[in-house]
Amino acid sequence: MIQIYVTGGTFDKEYNELNGSLYFKETHLQEMLTKGRNRLDVKTDTLFMKDSLEFSDTDRIQICDACLSVNADRILITHGTDTMTLTAEYLAGQISNKTIVLTGAMIPYKFGSSDGMFNLGSALAFIQVLPPGVYISMNGKVFEAGKVRKNLERGEFEAI
Amino acid sequence: MIQIYVTGGTFDKEYNELNGSLYFKETHLQEMLTKGRNRLDVKTDTLFMKDSLEFSDTDRIQICDACLSVNADRILITHGTDTMTLTAEYLAGQISNKTIVLTGAMIPYKFGSSDGMFNLGSALAFIQVLPPGVYISMNGKVFEAGKVRKNLERGEFEAI
Amino acid sequence: MIQIYVTGGTFDKEYNELNGSLYFKETHLQEMLTKGRNRLDVKTDTLFMKDSLEFSDTDRIQICDACLSVNADRILITHGTDTMTLTAEYLAGQISNKTIVLTGAMIPYKFGSSDGMFNLGSALAFIQVLPPGVYISMNGKVFEAGKVRKNLERGEFEAI
Amino acid sequence: MIQIYVTGGTFDKEYNELNGSLYFKETHLQEMLTKGRNRLDVKTDTLFMKDSLEFSDTDRIQICDACLSVNADRILITHGTDTMTLTAEYLAGQISNKTIVLTGAMIPYKFGSSDGMFNLGSALAFIQVLPPGVYISMNGKVFEAGKVRKNLERGEFEAI
User: Fold this and answer.
1) Which of B52, B117, C74, C94 shows its CA 20 to 30 Å from the CA of D145?
2) Within 10 Å of residue B127's Cβ, how many Cβ atoms?
3) Residue B52 Cα, gap to closest chain C Cα (Å)
4) Tens of pLDDT along A79-100?
5) Which segments cross the bilayer (chains A, B, C, D) (predicted)?
6) Residue B144, class by beta-carbon neighbours within 10 Å (0-12 exposed, 13-18 middle, 19+ buried)?
7) CA A30 centroid distance within chain
8) Which residues of A touch B39 (CB under 8 A)?
């Protein structure tokens, strides 16, 4: 069984047509899994729905506690891309016996041209075959926590 | 470097608005990789564009020859789902030193609700981490050639 | 109040992922009206769901009877494009005191790049302002019954 | 011939994946007309690309001058919904011998679930059949300038 924790991020942003802003309503994770005809045994829980630039230490502790306490060795976390590397590094310092993969999207799933489905497919694949550790799966690639940064100019993740 | 061979399949089917039929025009693989913000080093070649129910032995031999002769150890093949297991088994009998992953889609990429992006993401992930062998990646899962069948009633792949 | 009669056509075709064929399940008319934020007072009924190449005389009589008996002077009919002109001519010979507009699509609504939303918007506009008569609304244009043909080579409607 | 003037608005907003904001790049009007299989003779010019909340008097004067000087009696203006009624009223006070229709969208065209195609279809239909005057076409309806307001709570246009 794979545990999926939703924490928000661009993945799940929606357009508020009443005021023209972007906001979170509810996660589209289940809809995405259905569209992808996923047949893996997954359990999805929403921890919170936040832009990752607004994550506090408390939020990361909550994610970490959820990963530690859950009865699953393989955990996928959907996460905003801006501070994904920070959370990955924090988790890597706290957890060593589980395979944890963080992923996200550059474009909201609801906005037609999203990379979300591609990233979700990659992340769920990596999580099944990688040894214990904390990883980021973006742009078709996988990176170990602490060895990756988001290139803000290019909008992509790269090894460091 | 990952070599991608396109052979057609539902993945690439389009709707012909002049006569209401489904047909192949050209592959959408590059468009899908761009949408997924793929940053892996891939090379894409179209071997042919066919419904896999119409594959002949010659077609499978052509795929096999392409895999053997190319200077790449990791090869992704997009393929119709109906005879994907047959091609996988044939390749497994001929090639043992490369990691080959076959994938496809139940819904054409162009028809909005396709599982294609999800499957492409999964397949590109599996191909990076699995040892040499021939695999099928569908429904978020990965199967070894010879140990999988398409359940025609449910429209999904399952281990045998 | 505007009465909408659904009769099938490309508009409502879907992709059957189990056998790769196109078929009718149920109409997407209500979903399209919601997506268009339609606020007109409309009532939608499905007469049947058929490819218009398979319409019989009985089908056209049923459409005509429905138009005659309904308590509405403005009627929109969604219809396959292949025999839309025939039905329009038949209705024009039977009904003279109502504004009836037929429309359809070249690409199924469910296939992403459909002209369906555009045609539905046009048809609902024309129906509000045109005098009694039977019309076809396609390609942004409106044609009187009997003065239009479908150009099969170009896949568009043109005046004759 | 129908002249189309693009002035921006939600219609044409896009998502900037580098910073998560909404912005204008270029209009999607031509792409929308192609998708709708439009065969009307239209000419499209972009006057500017702005959120209509940021329109100045100068902007409205520019729109008005363009409408007056162009050699076309039927003019479609794509416009943000927030001040669409203001521009309509201003134009109605300056121009009386042309049929001018303003339309827009509540959801950007690029965001999948847009009402843009529906509104564009309606507006192009109304413009062909309505007598000289200035109108707003939204939600499938048409309103005369000065007799309509945007209901901000419901996100729809209504007669006053």
Assistant:
1) C74
2) 26
3) 12
4) 999 999 999 999 999 999 999 9
5) none
6) middle
7) 14
8) 139-141, 156-158
Q: D111 and A107 in contact by Cβ < 8 A? A: no
CATH class entry, domain C2-159: alpha beta
Residue-level pLDDT at D112: 80
d(CA C73, CA C3): 8
Q: Over 90: is that where the pLDDT of C138 sits? A: yes
- Picking from D37, D119, D124, the nearest residue to C115 by CB comes out as D37
C121 to chain D: which residues are within 8 Å by CB? 117-123, 125, 140
Q: How many CA atoms lie within 13 A of D6 on its CB side?
A: 21
Number of Cβ pairs < 8 A linking chain B and chain C: 39
- In order of A72, B151, D43, D57, the CA distances from D77 in angstroms are 56, 53, 12, 17
Are B122 and A117 within 8 A, CB to CB?
A: no
Cβ atoms of B123 and B77 closer than 8 Å? no
Query: Tokens 């009836």, residue?
Result: C100
Q: Are B125 and A121 in contact (CB under 8 A)?
A: yes
- Of the ranges A130-134, B66-70, B110-114, C41-45, which one carries the lowest mean pLDDT score? B110-114
Subunits with 3+ Cβ pairs within 8 Å of C are B, D
Residue C125's nearest CA partner among C142, C139, C112, C109 is: C142
Chains sharing 3 or more CB pairs under 8 A with chain D = A, C
Sign of CA dihedral D91, D92, D96, D101: positive
What's the pLDDT score for residue A113? 80
Residue D113 has pLDDT above 90, yes or no: no
Q: Using one digit for the tens of pLDDT, what is the confidence trace for C64-106?
A: 999 999 999 999 999 999 999 999 999 999 999 999 999 999 9
Closest residue on chain C to D142 (Cα): C125
Q: Are A12 and A56 in contact (CB under 8 A)?
A: no
The residues facing C141 across adjacent strands are C138
Closest CA to C98 of C140, C125, C58, C130: C130
CA A71 from centroid of its chain's CA atoms: 19
* Contact at CB, A15 and D152, closer than 8 angstroms: no
Decide: helix, strand or coil at residue A156. strand
CB B77 within 8 A of CB B11: no
Would you say the C-alpha torsion D40, C115, C107, D112 has a positive or negative sign? positive
| Cβ contact A103:A123 at 8 Å | yes
